[in-house]
Design brief:
Blueprint lengths: L4 E7 L6 H11 L8 H6 L6 H11 L6 H17 L2 E8 L1 H5 L5 H12 L2 H5 L2 E9 L4 H10 L9 E5 L11 H9 L3 E6 L5 H9 L5 E4 L7 H9 L4 E3 L1 H6 L11 H6 L4 E3 L4 H4 L3 H12 L3 H13 L7 H13 L8
The protein binds zinc ion (ZN).
């Protein structure tokens, strides 16, 4: 069994595998612009973040009913369990669905039906994080937060994702203030394609507690010092960075340098159906390519639980951390 870990940067829409996409398309009478799963997989060659987002949003057309969202989350949790995931904080993008006429309640009820039985079925505790699309307006984000109010008992926090460049965090100051007033935790994508300055802005203007990606902090030594000092977790997604050309090859990934610098980094899968692997596959890829030792992998697993929003269940966090310390690394998948 792989090392116990938490996954903190996972877009549930990004777990839509071609086989499930075609099954849901058939069930819902949606025609996809691909002949079969092979042709669809062949389209997964992206030149940048935007080229991925175009295909990603197109394929979401197959998600129509609450049952579709339940099936999507079930499929993810089953795969995640096999890769050692014990706790998952799952992103979803309500605007990507409400824009297509699927009500936010359908999305949340559907996902919740899966997450509610996740521990019993898959041994995975879960949290749900609602993300705003940063290339949509601040008003749209506020309307989304408002529409989510009847479901706040299911939502732990808010996030910010989609096309980063040209959409600085400060654009969403007001909605993050409102989310904070509702008691929601705060994360945001920053410093993936956007500059290190966006990471500072996410911390200072939005008050985020965890930065998604944050890779480009390495261009700003003062920022690295601050992130280390304040113990701000970064949710890295190595295979995603290669697929979206944020870095040229996995060998160029700064993960190791970031660990050496003392940053609280975690390894995650982002949109695993599109980027060549789930979280355990990301662990295995960095172990092999960056020459990580078992103690590096243990640190990454430990960090994942330290960075989790488990403040409401410290007993559980302590249990997971004890499992990490007791784990014996063998030659199998990490
Ligand atoms: Zn992401």
């Amino acid at each position: 069994m792989p090392v116990p870990k938490a996954e903190l940067h996972l877009h549930i829409e990004g777990t839509l595998e071609p086989e499930l996409a075609f099954a849901l398309a058939a069930r819902n009478g949606v025609t996809l612009p691909y002949a079969d799963t092979d042709e669809l997989r062949g389209a997964y060659r992206f030149s940048d973040l935007q080229s991925f987002l175009d295909l990603y949003y197109g394929l979401m057309a197959v998600l129509r009913t609450a049952e579709d969202f339940t099936a999507l989350a079930d499929a993810y949790l089953e795969r995640a369990a096999a890769q050692g995931v014990r706790h998952a904080e799952i992103f979803f993008d309500p605007q990507a669905h409400t824009a297509r006429g699927v009500p936010i309640g359908v999305v949340i009820e559907g996902l919740s039906a899966s997450l509610e039985r996740s521990e019993e079925r898959y041994g995975i505790s879960t949290r749900l994080i609602m993300c705003f699309l940063r290339d949509e307006s601040a008003e749209s984000a506020l309307a989304t937060l408002d529409a989510a109010k009847p479901y706040l008992d299911r939502i732990t926090g808010v996030g910010l994702d989609s096309a980063e460049v040209g959409h600085p965090p400060a654009k969403f100051r007001e909605v993050y203030e409102a989310a904070g007033a509702l008691g929601l935790r705060k994360v945001a994508h920053a410093g993936e394609e956007g500059p290190a300055a966006y990471i500072r802005e996410a911390l200072d203007v939005l008050g985020v507690e965890r930065v998604d990606h944050g890779l480009r902090c390495m261009e700003d030594a003062d920022l690295v010092d601050r992130l280390v000092r304040e113990r701000v977790p970064l949710t890295l997604c190595p295979l995603s960075n290669v697929r979206l050309r944020t870095i040229d090859t996995l060998a160029d990934h700064p993960l190791r340098a970031m660990m050496t610098a003392g940053l609280l980094v975690t390894v995650n899968s982002d949109d695993p159906a599109y980027f060549g692997g789930y979280v355990g596959d990301n662990f295995d890829a960095v172990r092999e390519t960056l020459g990580l030792e078992p103690e590096h992998l243990r640190e990454l697993a430990r960090n994942s639980f330290l960075a989790s929003f488990l403040e409401d269940d410290e007993e559980r966090r302590a249990r997971y951390l004890a499992e990490v310390e007791a784990y014996v690394f063998g030659g199998g998948p990490a």
